[in-house]
Amino acid sequence: MMIKLAALMIPLLLILGGCVAKQSPEPDHRFTFSWPYSDNDGMKPRGGVTEGAPVTLDKSPSPGWLSVMEPGVTKYERDRRAILSMAGTYRVTFNFIETVPLRSDYKVDRPYQSWATEYIEVIEDTGDFISLQHILIMYFVDENGKTEGPVVAKHWRQDWTYEDTEILEFKGNNTWRKIKVPGTESRGKWSQAVFQVDDTPRYEALGEWTYAGNYPSWTSSGTWRPLPRREFSVRDDYNVLDSINRVVITPVGWVHEQENLKLVVDDNGNPSGNNPYLVKEIGVNRYENIKEFDSKAAVDYWNRTAPFWSDVRKSWTEVISNNSPLKLSSSYDDKKLYEYLFEYADNIEAGGQYDSAQGSEYAKEIINRYVIQSGAIPDSAVY
After folding, report:
1. Beta bridge partners of 117
2. Which region holds residue 293: left if phi is over 0, alpha if psi is between -120 and 50, else beta?
3. Environment class of residue 291 by beta-carbon count within 10 Å: exposed (0-12), middle (13-18) or buried (19+)?
4. Over the stretch 312-346, which tens digit does the pLDDT of each residue have?
5. Mapping DSSP to helix (H, G, I), strand (E, B) and coil, where does residue 36 land?
6. Buried b / exposed e across 177-196, counting CB within 10 Å, b at 16+?
7. Has this prediction a pTM greater than 0.85?
């Protein structure tokens, strides 16, 4: 039986950051670039606090990989196949380490390391637009060695648009603005837009898929991003990640590489002072195909709640269109937006009949409670 997230009140750090379990099976992982180089455990990686059930990796070349490598297809079609190949069921490992301090007095933080299991579904494909929904599905091992679960939770989403002409750019301080992209700049490229668990925007960037032998990859332009949960729950000394993101398709899955600069911006969204950067961080998130894994609970959850989340996405499209720049509050009546939306989705998942008109009205009302009217950042800038 699926364990309901809201009912068990599992700490949201276990799901919202995409990092839910301790790395296993080795008891102590060392990083090549760990600080300092010593035998003590002062820089031992932080991360997941529970133990996930073992999984079996599928080492055979995936159908997605084989389709990407098929000779004779057009560049556009190969791009599409690369994006679509990211759907599937994966063990995801999350690894982050600070490598280059950019202030003389900066004390390098501990590395971060954890893992999860995740189901990714193509929820829309219209040719020039592809949307991939991530759903966490985790089995845990308790102190007696018994496997419990699954715990299922809607996770992040990525939308891909071919030759996109408008990018929603993060400007810090929970604010986004639309950026016009000239056709000459977007030709042959795809934008990747990333959204949080409640479909709040996170970041969007333009990049190009390239194919060097058996190395298919997409690399973004420099992109500002909000802090991930692994950081904002424990850090308050910076407020923006200035990132370059790279997606690499492999025979057994895909990898998300990150080069992050930890940046301080002021209330106007400008880099603060002469030394706005704290440190450079490297991130590697590996999505590895798994087999003999029961992902039915994730599929069932999505099948039952998808109509509601579709209406949530439509509501966000309207809100973003009507509020430029878009500035959001982090809470309303001491509740996060995802709490309202997850509760509504839980009722549907439990067997409640879904009324689209009612659900759409609810989503619009709740989302608009978090919108702050602001004209501090000029709109319609050029990419």
Report:
1. 91
2. beta
3. exposed
4. 999 999 999 999 899 999 999 999 999 999 999 99
5. coil
6. bbbebeeeebeebbbbbbbb
7. yes
